[in-house]
Amino acid sequence: MRWQHATVLLLLLALLAVPGSAAGVKYLYGNPELSATIAGTNEFAPGAETGLTVVLSNSGVNTHKIVGSTLIAPDDLPNTAKLVTVALKSDDTPFTVKTDPQFLSDIMGGASRTATFDVKVADSAEPGTYTLPLLVTYQYLQDAEEYGSDVLRYNYQTKTVTLPLSVRVTPDLRIEVTDVRSESLNVGTEGYVYLTLKNIGHDTAHNAVAKIVRNGASPLIPTDGSAYLGTFEPGEVVDVKFKVSVANSAEPQSYPLDVAVTYENYEQTTVTSKPVTIGFPVGGKIAFEVVSPMKTLNLGGKSVLEVVYKNTGDATAYNAQARISTVDPFTSSDDTAYLGDLAPGETATARFEVSIDSDGTEKEYGIDSEIRYRDELDNSKISDTMKVPVALQKSSAAFTSSVFIVIVAAVVIGAGYYIFVYRKKK
């Protein structure tokens, strides 16, 4: 029995000794294995500016491991890429990298990190496949030397590898505006703009439609802003025409419009080209002034009011008609007069028959007047309100009649007095 107890005691002591003699682990061989891929699409159109995200993966493994009770386990593994820095280059490609090298820290075996670079594709980039080199600099644990039972000396190596990233420039349509002109483009009216477009890209556009679009808060507003082109080949030149209105708030100067082409590309996908901004000169609005002097009319009865209007604007007014708006003491049953076509600087005279209340006040008045006309595109327009100056006075005929009565009365009185004196003398 005692011998059996001794055997059990030895086994227990052996079990208790295992934790105290835990084996150390050391990896003899292994190194980082880095590879790079692009997250998302690697296809870009000329002129595109985008964030290119690169995924850097470490597939390195540790192939040999030793275990021993006297070994000291190192802090780093041989397959860990430490202090990783990445830099994207674009030498001899139509790409421009705008982001500096990026620090990614450590990448253990089986892990990955991402880095995003701001990349611009040149407008003139030729379609095709290009290689962007990704320079990766890192350190790794080459070996760890033991000194005694409690000292490790780490030997790190620095390494730089170049990983190729394949990117593709797709064919596209790009437009160049080679000629611009406008017609009847004046403030407050409609006019036409004419453009000559050239396809300077590398893609044949199918079912192409040229469009003009308002640029921000520009007072140029397209009213007929589409033109069908059909098939638009690289190098081809087309002429297009659009109708545009100009806001009344505009001033006579140049304003922008954007032009682009919507089309089906080489993948039969509907896309829109990069817009091009063009400036168009805008002439002054059609405006009028009353240039006739103040007219003096008599209170009571009817009078003919003659008003001279002048086109002081920058465009011709067609089929112009003048109108007055009478208020007390004026009334009129003939308040419209035809002026005809008025070119810039020309004048025309309108005649209105007005009745004036005899109870009106002798003073100067301003009668409201406006002109309805048509612009170059036959749109009906109304001018700003003008004032027609009129002065009222008492009728000269009434004044003459009063004087005549006074004179007649004086003559009668004088004659009566003379007869009375003459008879008295007799």
TrEMBL record:
What are the residue boundaries of the CARDB domain, all occurrences included? Answer: 170-265
- Superkingdom is Archaea
What UniProt keywords apply to this chain's record, in alphabetical order?
Answer: Membrane, Transmembrane, Transmembrane helix
Instruction: Say if the entry is tagged with keyword Transmembrane.
Output: yes
Parts of the chain that traverse the membrane: 397-420
For this protein, the record's Gene3D superfamilies field holds: Immunoglobulins
Pfam name, any one: CARDB
The name under which this protein is listed is CARDB domain-containing protein
Originating species: Methanoculleus palmolei
